[in-house]
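Below is one record:
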Amino acid sequence: MTRLALRSHRPHSPRYRPHLESLESRDCPNAAPTIYMGIMSVQQNHVVLSGVVMDESPAGLTVQFSGQYSGTTQTNAEGTFTVCVTPAQLGAIFASTTDNIGQASNLAQVNVTSNAPAIVNFAATRQIGNIFTFTGRVIDEHPQNLKVTFGGLPSLAGRYTFANSDGWFSLTLELASGEEGIATAQTTDWWGLNSAIAETLVSNGNSSFPAQSS
C-alpha cells in the first residue's frame, strides 16, 4: 500500500516539474499582441490617442505611430497608453507594437476628421456717422482665436479680428464718407479648412442688416 501511494504522488514531485513546464511552453506558445486605439480632439489641432495592448506581458511595450503622426509611446503596467499629439493634417493615424519575443501586433487605425468652420449672424451696425461695428459668430469645434478676415469694402481690406471662446467676434472702424456696399468675412480653422464667405449689406441709410453666406 505504501509503495502504491508513493508512486501516485511521484509525478508531482519537483523532479518532474521542469519536464512538464517545458511541455506547456512548447505546446502553448504566446499569442501575438493585439492593439486597440481611439482618438479624441482636445483643442485646436491637437488630439489624444489612447488605447490598450492585449498581451501576456503588456507592460513597457513600445507603441509605434505612423500616418499623419509619427512617434512612439510606452504602455503602462496594464498595457494602456495615452498621448497628446499634433497630426500633420487630417487623415489616418496607425498604431502597432511588438511583444517581448518579437511578435508583431495588428495595425490599429483612427481617423482625424474636422468639419469646415462657418460664420453666422454676420451684421454691420452703424454707431455714429461713418463708424460701423461688424459682428458675427464662428461655428467650429474649437473657435477660440480663429482669425476672421474682412473684405468687400475698401476700408475693410486687410482688416481682421479673432473669435473669442464662444466664437463671437467684433470689429469697429470708420468707413470712408459715402462708402457702402457688401462687406464680407471669412475664417480658416486649425486644419486649414475655409469657411464660406459671409456677407452683409452696409448702407448709409440703415444701421443693421442680416448676414448671408455665399
In short: Residues 9-112 form a domain with the Immunoglobulin-like fold (CATH 2.60.40.10).
